[in-house]
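Hey team,

Sharing the Multidrug ABC transporter substrate-binding protein run so nobody has to redo it. Sequence (416 residues) first:
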Amino acid sequence: MLFRDAFKTATRSLAHGKMRSVLTMLGIVIGIASVIILMSIGQSAQNLILSEVEGIGSDLIIVIPGAPASGNFSAPASAQGIIITSLKERDADALRREPSIVAVAPEVRGQAEVVYGNNDESVSYQGVNADFFVARTLGVKEGRVLTKSDIDSGLRVAIIGLDLAQTLFSERVTPIDKTIRLNNMSFRVIGVLDKGGSGPFGVDQGNIVIVPLSVAQKQLLGINYYNDIVVKANSEYDVNFVKSRIAFVLRQNHGIMTADKDDFDIRTQEDILSLLGNITSILTLFLAAIASISLLVGGIGIMNIMLVAVTERTREIGLRKAVGATDTDILEQFLIESILLTLIGGAIGIAVGAGIVGLIYVVLSTFYASLGWAFAFPISAVLLGLLVSTLSGVAFGIYPARQAGKKNPIDALRYE
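Structure output:
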């Protein structure tokens, strides 16, 4: 039998049993749509996270206390809750004397409850110096940034994030010069940050309180060391060269002779992007693998229904074989039916998945515009869907097709 004839026979058979064909395709449709939706969400989340990190600046270098983490996915010791006191004021002073560095911004961090009137919110707070705003290229929407005089005088002043300003104050009330309480201490608000988003350590910049470094160290935390030092490289120097100079200066300060004895870790934007890219890619593949389980279920459903179809059409098979159809002709017809079902189901699944992804994007961009969620529709998800649906049609269609082809024509014609 010519392939064209087998194809026409298969399509007529599918059209004859419309409801059965629709129900057979349903599992594939759901599976393909799930793969596309989850991979799209994973890709969008990856793009959002990486764009946030890129926003901190390619000339930004972060010095973290503790030995360099071993392995690509290991967090530094300080990020695991281990208190390390190796970064001190003398380190920041030494780095300021390095000509390849524009700004040096030591940081300390903590968690506390911030209160204004009857409103309160649990927030992260940061103690910084005046160079922090230069290093991080941050500005204020209202008010002013911290100055060297604020730091040296130990004034209890604060700059708050955009989201926190909306939480604590009504639209009619300006936060500037209002007094808030942080960890039961009074602070006068002198500024509101001009943008939110995530900082280098995942800190929500929209829901943060920034206070003078001296106040945070002595009055809020009672410490004399830094949680990290943010360095802005001079644009005239290569970032990797600046990184090597930072390592040289700190080794001199800490009396370290070889790199394997380092008690600090230096991260550039490239390092952070590489780490986050690896992690988010694995998470995206993990989501796709979970969604692919539904494709497996859909394929098994096709095999079961095709087996039922073979049983129901036993007399038809016997009649065709009686007039000259070979085992290969019968196998070819049923295999074409199976592949057509999965391909059509795959195409519908892609359309459904794309529609749902588009709807999610519209909802998020309309009602949650501050998230900055970007539409991502990875072509790899479409190709994966088509590939898996085709393979499912072949893999789960072969057994029923072989069962049909092996039927004895005499027994098939006698079948009731």
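The mean pLDDT is 78.

Ping me if you want the raw files.
A.
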